[in-house]
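Example complex used in Figure S2.
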Amino acid sequence: MSDTLKYEEKKLKIVGTRPLRPDGVDKVTGRARYGADYNLAGQLIGKVLRSPYAHARIKAIDVSAALALPGVKAVVTRDDFPEMPNEYASAGELTVNYRAVTRNMMAREKVLYDGHPVAALAAVSESVARAALALIKVDYEVLPHVIDVVEAMRPDAPLLHEDQYTEGVKPKPARPSNIAKRLEYGHGDLAAGFAKADVIIEREFNTKPVHQGYIEPQACLASYSADGQAELWTCTQGHFVFRAQCAKVLQMDVSKIRVTPTEIGGGFGGKNNVYNEPLAIALSRKSNRPVKMVMTREEVFRATGPTPGANVKVKIGCTLDGRITAAQAEVNFQAGAFPGSPVNQASMCAFTRYDIANVRVVGHDVTVNRPKVAAYRAPGAPIVVFGVESVIDELSKKLGIDPIEFRLKNAAKEGTQTYYGPKLGPIGYVQTLEAARAHPHYSAPLGPNQGRGVATGFWFNIGNETTCSLNLQPDGTLTLNLGTIDVAGGSRASLSMMVAEELGIELERVRPIIGDTSTLGFNFVTAGSRSTFASGMAGVIASRDMIEKLRARVAKIREVPLAAVAWKNGRAEPADARVVKFEPMSLAEIAAMAGRTGGPIAGHAEINAQGAGPGFGAHIVDVEVDRQTGAVKILRYTVVQDVGKAIHPAYVEGQMQGGAAQGIGWALNEEYVYGADGVLQNPGFLDYRVPVASDLPMIDTVIVEVPNPNHPYGVRGCGEVPIISPMAAIANAIDNAVGVRLYQQPFSPPRVLEALSGPAKR
Amino acid sequence: MARIALSSSLAPYADGVRELELEVANVRQLFEVLGERYPGLQAQLEGEVAVAIDNEIYQDALLQPIRSDSEVVLISKIAGG
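Predicted assembly (843 residues):
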């Protein structure tokens, strides 16, 4: 049964204000402890030997020389981990297959990408560990590789998995393929829809993989004890999911692994899955010593999940008055070395902003010799939206219709039938577009070589499994024990604010902590813009649970009927003093007597939150293009987004600004560059350029609040949507500035120069 | 009976069937009936399917009631970054 609490409009004292975050002082003073800050006495340093080849069969591994080196305490290879069958579980981005998880953390039959782990060892120091890695002998049979998604889809492409037959195709194909899955969404009559169109535009787009670019590399510390218990400290978006994955691949009882999440220096979807964690536990088990493993930046780039590169074809038809009659897309996503790209969600996002009667989207999930992709804010959506919103822009220009007006003519509203299944509930897309059109940015003058672009995005948002506990302490303060990681977005503040609002107390009296996996029931990862929605719902339920227990306790203490006790103004008061009078009791007074009147008081919530409300955003960007160098400068940027309700507006604005900043980097500079040998050429921030503060203007934000009816405060979620639109908005702005349309990301100076001098120039 | 629809991405696993009517009380019963009728859909039902009941999306909610006049759409599970 659903635990959804419905939205209630009410006067708010704390929700909607901008207090300081409870983790802020620790972070600005350097006291906050991130993954690499944890140490244990006697710990060893773990390091990983990685494949230098994009694709090779492992004929033999000889670790004897490494083990013989003084100071080396343990080595693990494929032989130390059991074979796993195909078994699927949710892990944030999409479903993971444990057979792939165990092969990704340690190669078995073959290495499938440059950086694929082949062995790991633990030694008394990093220098000894590095020296030992050089002594491991691996006999490889190098195989042909394939990096590009379109090449990988060809029948004669080098095959990564000889047992992989395309799913979603009937009958089952006769030959194995790099296409792991074909999927199709749609409704209506596509041919009839295009026949009604006066204008049809069809374009093809290509994007490169980009990394989430979190500042903190993966880091963990594991300690395995003689009685078979393991403790793990790690920077993660979901410690419960990490525990489950470690238990599965190490064949341990879940309850015997205790995972403590550290502060996290960014994740953005990239820290939903284990990499070194099972290796650290296995090395600790083998060496009887704690083992610490910290990735280098190069390892982060070579071996952790980027977002997919892709090939996207888009065709849209519309009438002369700007009504879209049909839309079609083919979405081909690199999954990396193992199946499981976000092509499904990207396909569902492609056209959902619009009310279109005839739609067809075909997607392909394609394995290539790159690291297995991971989620990255609104996984897949920015890629497909780049293509769709570029074509929408071309259509509006061709018809002489203002681009926001064009979108309003076709905008999805409550009741719009999606092409992937349900009708949309109450949404704020139209309100978001109208707010963008009314913003002064949209009508500000532009100079030479300057242009303005608009694009819009949609994301579903999610709920999922969530628990929390709220403990009344002896002095009347409260400890809020949360199971969802605060991925630096400020959720500890937002969730405490909802609890304080419910109880009618000062925010300072609620102290939030993120509990380890032994203190709460299962919590899904912080992903999909779910934390403020789902943990907020849990916090409200726990607060109301506590209020009921407080009322019951006061009724006993004051010897009055339960119905006579109301919770008002942060204390127990007579529901109606004319009927039953008693002396009100504050939280502190109740707490002081709790031990002698029945014991401690706590509120709990254990839910699977349903009813997440979709979010929509509209971005406006002004660029200036240097015709001599091809450099694109972002002059002005405005993000408009429906978030349902901004519990802490400053942190919502931070999400909107952060998403836009990451999207700008994605658009202008970021890309994985591989050599002909399949080896990554730019595994570092010197050659993989993320935007820095001096690259960006102040990013303006406009919060639109159309409440989600399925949350007590109307929350939808806000972290995914803001990264969806920048790539398309900037492409549209460049076209508006200099009359060239870019079909390939990133829009780096060489590519812009090439476009300026090429046939696409108008 | 509840009207059940399969998204076009799931139809290939159910012999191409897109719509049917079933008398089921909740999502678990729905999955059991569909899994028996379309064995090819079983693996999807176990891990990759969400349902929209009267346009509200539910994920991992086996006990969510389905009324006899409900419209149910099976879609792919949704997550995020």
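Chain A touches chain B through 55 residues (CB under 8 Å). The longest strand of chain A covers residues 324-336.
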